[in-house]
């Protein structure tokens, strides 16, 4: 479970010292600027967390739900034993269930290949897994890594937490009214929809599977090009997962603890941490979220009534003597407290999205798109809305991606209400697809941008050699035809081409006489299809052979994009230097 920022953590002096020591050690070694003393943040334990919007441009993976606040013990775990030395069990907090630990390490290995610049350590995933779910409830997973029962965070209905209306029709969290964080890494359904991964190769993306969830968490942390070996990159990534300074400190403490040593324990033998970020003073940890104190303003106390004045001498008396006192005026009822209202956020004021820069999104396969998708958030009367998160998603049958390799990017609108998506990079699959823009957290009609990937093309062809291509009847040409393709002066690689021996310059039909290529069986062929230029834009044709017909013949090479090159081939007897047409019988 993960954090609702702005809540106070209940930590004692000892655990506070652990957090400070762990974070300080981390900043001194692996992350030079991952400190808790950033300007504008209250970093001490027990302080009110402040959101860092700049570090978390797309909110959080978890909807800022509650998380476990327990910190690692003061003593460090035993270091890993040397090879051949029996393992000595370390503190129980250092033990990670075997399947869960395997999932973290497999995710690290996959990210090392797919996003090497991220430098994601598995200990970071373990630290997040600890504070989110206590390592999948102490390793309550089956052999495939799926939890025996779903792990669900509190209902995000706005009562002490963020309000996130249902986005998955209850498919993941069983709630068709509001969302809940799901699984051992506590993804909210709307985030899992685009961030989910298949980590165990079973063809499914299940947030309740530790292999899927750990790999998804790794890609989520690495999605913005952050480098986990730097303090700023590590801090930004963790805050993007849950936007709370206290959460950051807790995760860093566990990460440093695991870095100093850990060991594998049997599945199901781990223990849940103590304390949750949504605990109220005097209440123990539990699955039911508490309402945030202070959400309603108390009524003003009523003013005390003034004491009545005693009667004057000689005034009216009651039978039996004694002065009478005029009755006190009734106390007016206290005014009810004004209802607590939350001012609308910029997101609440958005009525629709418009295309800020209409135009075609077109690129050649393997190339970057020149234009970028844009969306402008506007109110009902057309005024721009700044500081709104716009989520761009690539949909359709395409292998195009945004810069960084992701198919989803979240961008905050600027002062003009405009959000510009990262640059698109076309893959090898041609055709149309859609870049869809949505307002994060709102049910507003999407803005779709049509994008097209065209085949690789060349606009110019040239031979790489000017050596004449000649041959004697029945022989083979000494030189092979090699051409270079370019597009706007640059190398045109992987461009499709066709080579055909044609009848004449104005008759492109295939010639049935003269030079020819050979197929795999050695039979003559005079048209070659499915050719392609290499990475340098070069295309070298197979050897050419000549039949008994002499004369000048033409080889035409065409490519996608319209580039064409016609090459002369001459077949003549060894003593015929004119290489003209064959003499007639009369001659």
From TrEMBL:
Which SUPFAM superfamilies has this protein been placed in? Lysozyme-like
The residue ranges flagged as biased composition, category Pro residues, are: 327-346
The source's domain of life comes to Bacteria
Which residues belong to any copy of the Transglycosylase SLT domain? 181-230
Sequence segments annotated as region (Disordered): 26-96, 263-361
Alphabetically list the UniProt keywords.
Signal
Biased-composition ranges, Low complexity, are 81-92
Gene3D superfamilies reported in the protein's UniProt record: 1.10.530.10
The answer to whether keyword Disulfide bond applies is no
Q: Which PANTHER family match?
A: LYTIC MUREIN TRANSGLYCOSYLASE, MEMBRANE-BOUND LYTIC MUREIN TRANSGLYCOSYLASE B
**Which BP terms does GO give this entry?**
peptidoglycan catabolic process
UniProt GO molecular function: peptidoglycan lytic transglycosylase activity
Q: Specify the protein name.
A: Lytic transglycosylase
Secretion signal: which residues? 1-30
């Amino acid at each position: 479970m993960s954090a609702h920022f702005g809540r106070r953590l209940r930590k004692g002096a000892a655990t506070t010292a652990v957090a400070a020591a762990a974070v300080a050690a981390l900043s001194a070694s692996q992350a030079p600027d991952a400190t808790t003393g950033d300007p504008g943040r209250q970093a001490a334990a027990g302080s009110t967390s402040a959101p860092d919007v700049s570090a978390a441009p797309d909110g959080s993976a978890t909807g800022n739900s509650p998380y476990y606040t327990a910190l690692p013990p003061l003593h460090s775990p035993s270091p890993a034993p040397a090879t051949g030395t029996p393992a000595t069990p370390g503190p129980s907090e250092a033990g990670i269930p075997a399947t869960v630990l395997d999932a973290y390490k497999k995710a690290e290995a996959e990210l090392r290949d797919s996003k090497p610049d991220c430098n994601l350590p598995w200990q970071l995933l373990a630290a997040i897994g600890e504070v989110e779910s206590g390592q999948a409830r102490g390793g309550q997973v089956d052999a495939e890594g799926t939890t025996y029962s779903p792990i669900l965070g509190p209902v995000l209905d706005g009562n002490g937490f963020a309000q996130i209306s249902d986005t998955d029709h209850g498919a993941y969290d069983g709630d068709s009214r509001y969302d809940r964080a799901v699984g051992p890494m506590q993804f909210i359904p709307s985030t899992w929809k685009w961030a989910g991964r298949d980590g165990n190769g079973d063809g499914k993306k299940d947030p309740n599977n530790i292999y899927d969830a750990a790999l998804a968490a790794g890609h989520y942390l690495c999605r913005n090009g952050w480098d986990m070996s730097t303090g700023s990159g590590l801090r930004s990534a963790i805050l993007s997962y849950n936007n709370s300074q206290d959460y950051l400190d807790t995760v860093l403490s566990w990460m440093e603890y695991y870095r100093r040593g850990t060991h594998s324990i049997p599945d199901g033998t781990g223990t849940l941490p103590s304390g949750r970020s949504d605990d109220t003073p005097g209440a123990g940890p539990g699955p039911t979220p508490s309402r945030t104190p202070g959400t309603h303003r108390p009524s003003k106390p009523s003013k005390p009534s003034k004491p009545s004045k005693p009667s004057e001498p000689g005034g009216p008396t009651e039978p039996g003597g004694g002065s009478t006192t005029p009755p006190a005026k009734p106390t007016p009822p206290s005014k009810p407290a004004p209802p607590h209202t939350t001012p609308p956020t910029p997101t609440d004021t958005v009525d629709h999205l418009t295309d800020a820069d209409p135009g075609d999104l077109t690129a050649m396969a393997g190339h970057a798109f020149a234009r970028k998708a844009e969306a402008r958030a506007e109110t009902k009367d057309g005024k721009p809305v700044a500081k709104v998160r716009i989520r761009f998603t690539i949909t359709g049958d395409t292998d195009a991606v945004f810069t960084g390799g992701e198919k989803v990017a979240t961008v905050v609108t600027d002062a003009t209400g405009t959000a510009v998506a990262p640059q698109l990079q076309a893959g090898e699959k041609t055709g149309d697809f859609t870049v869809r823009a949505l307002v994060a957290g709102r049910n507003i009609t999407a803005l779709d941008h049509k994008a097209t990937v065209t085949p690789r093309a060349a606009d110019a062809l040239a031979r790489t050699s000017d050596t004449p291509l000649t041959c004697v009847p029945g022989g083979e040409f000494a030189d092979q035809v090699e051409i270079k393709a370019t597009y706007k002066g640059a190398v045109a690689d992987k461009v499709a081409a066709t080579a055909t021996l044609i009848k004449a310059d104005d008759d492109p039909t295939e010639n049935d006489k003269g030079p020819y290529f050979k197929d795999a069986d050695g039979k003559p062929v005079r048209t070659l299809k499915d050719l392609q230029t290499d990475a340098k834009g070069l295309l070298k044709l197979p050897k050419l052979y000549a039949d008994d017909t002499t004369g000048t013949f033409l080889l035409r090479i065409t490519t996608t994009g319209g580039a064409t090159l016609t090459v002369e081939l001459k077949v003549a007897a060894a003593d015929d230097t004119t290489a003209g047409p064959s003499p007639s019988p009369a001659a």
